[in-house]
Amino acid sequence: MSWTYNGELIQSIEDVPEGAIGFIYNIVTYNVGGKGEAKEYIGSKVLFHDNKRLIKSKEYEKHPDKRTLRRYKSKRGKNKGEWMYYEDRKKESDWMTYTGSNDKLNSDIAEGVGITKYILKFVFKESHLLYEETKAIFCTGALEEERFYNDHALSRFFKKNIIQKTVDNLV
Q: Are 147 and 98 part of one and the same domain?
């Protein structure tokens, strides 16, 4: 299943703009509950994960370019006080098959609801990813409308509280 960005299909990492670290997306589901309803979900996804691979002492001795390795002093365990070597690795995330973190959305998809995945915006700085996601959620009113799966933003603003306050103000 591919993503759509500005009317073009994004089918691999080669189709992503150079330097992008993630994106803001919108997943639209169709025929929810067999009623023909459409619901949406807004979120963000990183394209790569950074991790460290520990280099054992035998591998360190055979390593062709030791300058590419980083090191730290072990603070616990049987190697306490010894230098530990590791290499930084960048691994592509599961962004192509990702369908969001919302449980209700994923259960609807598992039941066979049709979906379309849109990339709203590519993000080039890690610090902007959370900001752009939150901005998209607030600007679309995703926490105020029932047609969105989103139930919170920043783990601080919850749909149930916002909708309840709105109902109380109307009465």
A: yes
CA distances from 98 to 79, 138, 153 (A): 39, 22, 19
Average pLDDT for the chain: 88
Distance between CA atoms of residues 37 and 40, nearest Å? 10
- Angle (CA) 58-59-60 rounded to 5° is 90
d(CA 20, CA 106): 26
User: How many domains does the structure of the chain reveal?
Assistant: 2
Residues 115 and 84 in one domain: no
Query: Which of 21-30, 39-48, 52-61 is predicted with the least confidence, judged by mean pLDDT?
Result: 52-61
**Residue recorded with tokens 């035998």:** 58
Whole domain around residue 10: which residue ranges? 3-47+94-170
**What is the spatial distance between Cα 138 and Cα 140, in angstroms, rounded to a whole number?**
6
| Cβ neighbours of 147 (radius 10 Å) | 13
What does the pLDDT look like over 51-91, one tens digit per residue? 888 888 888 888 888 888 888 888 888 888 888 888 888 89
Contact between 85 and 55 under an 8 Å Cβ cutoff? The reply is yes
